[in-house]
Inverse folding.
């Protein structure tokens, strides 16, 4: 009888260990192009640590082909789940089909894919189109619908670039005297924004007739502000600025009088992402296809509060 009890006890212990086995999740991140991206990566790693998740982290360095390879690697490693922040929206169908064939659930985070929604479980992301609309509406109100605009675009083919442009245009196109005079790519980096703005300053004879700069993220705008200062211009005053992310640097620029508005993109979204992943792995399905992360708008009026809230 004693031996029988011992066997049952060992079996029960093995079951418990099995159930408590750390989950292995592959995370295919875009890169390190902006302060927001860096904050998001840090949050994902910290949240995985908090939950005892074994996170396989890959950084595609903004290279779509490298990111596809990383996801293939997660499939070959038979991870429990895959989270992807897609560099670009296109080219995902085959790889997502391979994950489905391997019975590995995929979750899209931050950005989006242009693929059959049946190929991924859920998307956890903000509404980039709304961010563009908020920026357009704030600028229309600030300029009474009368403004020539320079647009700094993010990485070509990325969902935030596509949707922020569309959302912004949906609003400003309603005002006959609001027009995008120049739209230049800056790849979401500070260096890209500085390079783009230097070019525009030359092409517009020192931003003549430019009343505002609309940047798809804060880092490109911070680079543009540098270029404007070097040209003896006064961003935030002679040219209003609107951007997205709400990183600490933009709040400092606001306090210095160099920036006017940023739509915050929350970077501490690891908890929402892993909540959905772990619910799914536990057999639960009580979550929507798109877990929407809210966006709110910040100006110099709350820049100091935002910096202290973030502990900066
Ligand atoms: O996908 C979100 C965007 O990607 C952020 O606005 C930008 O900073 C990052 O490069």
């Amino acid at each position: 009888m004693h031996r029988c009890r011992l066997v049952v006890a060992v079996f029960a212990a093995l079951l418990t260990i099995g159930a408590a086995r750390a989950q292995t999740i592959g995370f295919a991140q875009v890169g390190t192009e902006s302060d927001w991206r860096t904050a998001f990566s840090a949050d994902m790693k910290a949240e995985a640590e908090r939950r005892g998740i074994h996170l396989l982290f890959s950084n595609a360095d903004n290279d779509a082909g490298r990111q596809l390879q990383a996801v293939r690697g997660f499939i070959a490693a038979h991870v429990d789940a895959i989270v992807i922040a897609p560099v670009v929206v296109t080219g995902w169908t085959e790889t997502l089909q391979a994950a489905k064939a391997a019975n590995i659930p995929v979750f899209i985070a931050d950005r989006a894919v242009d693929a059959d929604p049946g190929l991924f479980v859920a998307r956890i992301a903000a509404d980039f189109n709304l961010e563009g609309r908020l920026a357009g509406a704030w600028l229309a109100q600030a300029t009474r619908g009368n403004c020539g605009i320079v647009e700094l675009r993010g990485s070509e083919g990325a969902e935030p670039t596509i949707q922020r442009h569309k959302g912004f245009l949906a609003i400003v196109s309603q005002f006959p005297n609001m027009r995008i005079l120049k739209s230049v790519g800056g790849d979401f980096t500070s260096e890209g924004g500085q390079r783009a703005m230097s070019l525009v300053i030359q092409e517009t004879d020192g931003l003549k007739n430019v009343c505002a700069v609309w940047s798809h993220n804060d880092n490109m705008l911070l680079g543009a502000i540098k270029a404007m200062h070097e040209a003896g211009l006064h961003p935030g005053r002679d040219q209003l600025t609107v951007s997205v992310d709400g990183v600490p640097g933009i709040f400092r620029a606001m306090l210095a009088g160099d920036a006017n508005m940023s739509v915050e993109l929350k970077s501490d979204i690891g908890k929402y992402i892993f909540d959905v992943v772990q619910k799914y792995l536990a057999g639960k399905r009580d979550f929507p296809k798109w877990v929407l992360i809210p966006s709110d708008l910040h100006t110099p009026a709350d820049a100091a509060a935002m910096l202290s809230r973030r502990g900066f």
The longest strand covers residues 177-185.
